[in-house]
Design a protein that fits this description.
The chain is an alpha/beta fold. It is built from eleven helices and eight strands. An eight-stranded parallel beta barrel has the order 1-2-3-4-5-6-7-8, surrounded by six helices. Helix 6 links the parallel strand 4 and strand 5. Helix 2 crosses helix 4 and helix 5 packs across helix 6. The structure holds 3-methyl-2-oxobutanoic acid. The site of 3-methyl-2-oxobutanoic acid has 10 residues, from loops.
């Protein structure tokens, strides 16, 4: 056996088997460098369509394209070795029919090498999820607040804060699980409902503004690092990188203007002549 052990990547079935076990750690990444930093600590790295807002300054995720997802999915695959990489299906790439969903998902799997895709929607996506899973596409569901529906829901507000809304959200969760998804993201859902859904489902729930009782948690990396200008209530800031990036940039700008960068240690001398 080679002295260098190959690192085995986690798979969708590995994550699916973690129901009720050790919490599943997930974060988003869109780049090789951040993927490399996350890889040792995260079970799942999601190449989220939140890249539309974070990388491109868009107002919503609606304009994100399949090509954008594939490009960043590839970058994250190159930067990581161990985590399961899940790539989001962007708006318009899967809703028209289950066949459209399969063609888009097949592109994502083939062109990035990732281990699973994520799509938004509960009951309305049940047939599509089943179709994909039966054809070899591991699916992570996403219910509760589904940001791609912003133009029909009107605002990014928490779901299930009135008990009268619970039934529909519970039915969505069950539909995703029954269709064969290996896990489901529960976004911005009242805590007692997220807890109740987690107890009821046989697949792991991944909370983002859900409950500490969820089987795992996910946040957008730039939100928790303090790089995003506006964040939702459910974001805990674990870092404050904005000011330290700005002070590094200010120091660089001052050095360039004062002609003290590059210093002698950053430039190339001539080779010494051989006699
Ligand atoms: O796009 C994304 O980053 C997501 C997470 C917020 C779950 O879907």
């Amino acid at each position: 056996m080679s002295a260098q052990q190959e690192t085995r990547r986690l798979t969708a079935p590995d994550i699916g088997a973690r129901k009720g076990g050790e919490p599943i750690v997930c974060l988003t990444s869109y780049h090789a460098h951040t993927a490399r930093l996350l890889d040792r600590h995260c079970d799942v790295i999601l190449v989220g369509d939140s890249l539309g807002m974070v990388m491109h300054g868009l107002e919503t995720t609606v304009p994100v394209t399949l090509d954008m997802m594939i490009l960043q999915g590839l970058a994250v695959m190159r930067g990581s070795k161990r985590a399961l990489i899940v790539v989001d299906m962007p708006f318009g790439s899967y809703e028209a029919s289950k066949e459209q969903a399969f063609m888009s998902a097949a592109r994502v799997l083939k062109e990035t090498g990732c281990g699973a895709i994520k799509l938004e929607g509960g009951r309305r996506m049940q047939e599509t999820i089943a179709f994909l899973v039966q054809r070899g596409v591991p699916v992570m569901g996403h219910i509760g607040l589904t940001p791609q529906s912003i133009n029909t829901i009107g605002s990014f507000r928490a779901q299930g804060r009135d008990k009268s809304d619970w039934k529909a959200i519970e039915q969505d969760a069950r539909a995703v699980a029954d269709a064969g998804a290996f896990s489901v993201v529960i976004e911005a859902v009242a805590e007692p409902l997220a807890r109740r859904i987690t107890a009821a489902l046989s697949i792991p729930t991944i909370g983002i503004g859900g409950s500490v009782a969820c089987d795992g948690q996910i946040l957008v990396l730039e939100d928790m690092l303090g790089l995003s200008p506006r964040v939702a209530k459910f974001v805990k800031r674990y870092g404050d990188l904005g000011p330290s990036i700005e002070s590094a940039v200010a120091a660089y700008a001052a050095d360039v203007r004062a002609r003290v960068f590059p210093g002698p240690e950053h430039v190339y001398s001539m080779r010494k002549k051989e006699k």
